[in-house]
Amino acid sequence: MRLKSYTDYCLRVLIFVAARPDQRATIAEIARSYGISENHLVKVVHFLGKAGFLENVRGRGGGLQLALAASKINVGTVVRSAEGPALPAACFDSSAPKCSIAPACRLRGVLRDAVEAFYAVLDRYTLADLVADRAQLRAILLPVPRRVERRRAR
């Protein structure tokens, strides 16, 4: 199963924010770290706030912070929320044309089992598991700018 880019961005935002729980993050920082458009992230952050995963503080000194402890944010729950209903094949979509082999097809059951197994694995993990090495994540996501040495003009 392949996640939508939207779901991927949701997870990336949560990882970024959880990697530095002592500070609020901004959409600009997250966009810069991942090379993602700020416009895309505005929608993602809004969704994560409405879903109860993020607390979005407006104004001076504002930013993003987790609404729950990272250990309380289940990865499977986030993915289900962002993805919506799992539709691994057209036969799962009620608006799709009826499949001619539907009465005898066993593929639907196999795919349902596969989706359930996929989510069962994600359900075993929390955001805290994804950010277990916060120091390494911070170093990657927010590298310390190198000091540029100026050469004296002679």
Helix residue percentage: 40-55%
**Helical/strand content category:** mainly alpha
**H/E element order:** HHHEEHHHH
Main pleated-sheet profile: 2 strands, antiparallel
Radius of gyration: 20 Å
Number of strands: 2
CATH superfamily of the domain at 5-84 and 127-141: Winged helix-like DNA-binding domain superfamily/Winged helix DNA-binding domain
Low-confidence sequence ranges: none
CATH fold-level assignment of the domain at 5-84 and 127-141: Arc Repressor Mutant, subunit A
Mean of residue pLDDT?
Answer: 88
What does this structure look like?
Helix content is 47%, strand content 5%. With 154 residues, it is mostly helical. The protein has a domain of 95 residues: Arc Repressor Mutant, subunit A (Orthogonal Bundle), CATH 1.10.10.10. Helix 1 packs across helix 3, helix 1 runs antiparallel to helix 4 and helix 4 crosses helix 5. The chain is elongated, with a radius of gyration of 20 Å. The mean pLDDT is 88.
For the structure shown, list the relevant keywords.
154 residues, 7 helices, Arc Repressor Mutant, subunit A, elongated
Set down the secondary structure blueprint.
Blueprint: H1 5-19, H2 27-34, H3 38-50, E1 54-57, E2 63-66, H4 75-83, H5 107-122, H6 127-130, H7 134-141
Antiparallel strand pairs: 1-2
Helix pairs in contact: 1-3, 1-4, 2-3, 4-5
